[in-house]
Amino acid sequence: MPQKYYDEEDVQPWDRMERESASAYEAFTSYLLMGAARGIRSAARKDGKPKSTYIGFSKRWNWAERSRAWDNSRLKERQQEAKDQEKAARERQRKIGELLQSKATRWVNSVAVEDIDGHVAVKMMQLGVQLENAAISKTIEELYAQNEVTDAFLAGVVNALREGRAAQRAMLGNVGNSE
After folding, report:
1. Quick one: pLDDT band at residue 179, thresholds 50, 70, 90?
2. Domain segments of the chain: what residues?
3. Is 62 helix (H, G, I), strand (E, B) or coil?
């Protein structure tokens, strides 16, 4: 029957067990750190020790259970790291979204009403309604998923604004030239 772990709460199954010799723990550590290629015979061969010694250590000190606990612990750590990275990425995206909204709002506020042509005003109204609806009932991700707001639509608004300004400038230039 394998030895029990220390009763201390902070001691993990992969830590040195009570009465486990230094050589047995060193062999276990070598085995443990082999990762996916882990094997008793492979560890013994790598360490230049008799495989019968490692087989005995493995049975007495419950290497299979202890290494499984180690693997599960590492997996949980990697999963937590992934969650933390995802959360940080969402926070960065949120901050970028706020910055883009702020810049777009400043730009829209700087455009004089007379500089916006009719079809651009209609597109802006449609986008405004969609964004307002998103704020009330849906997330923008849901609207994107439902193709209610697309990158092409947003690009169309910007292009229409640019074209509208260019067309109005051209018309103003032509009016001056026709006299």
Report:
1. very low
2. 1-94, 111-178
3. coil
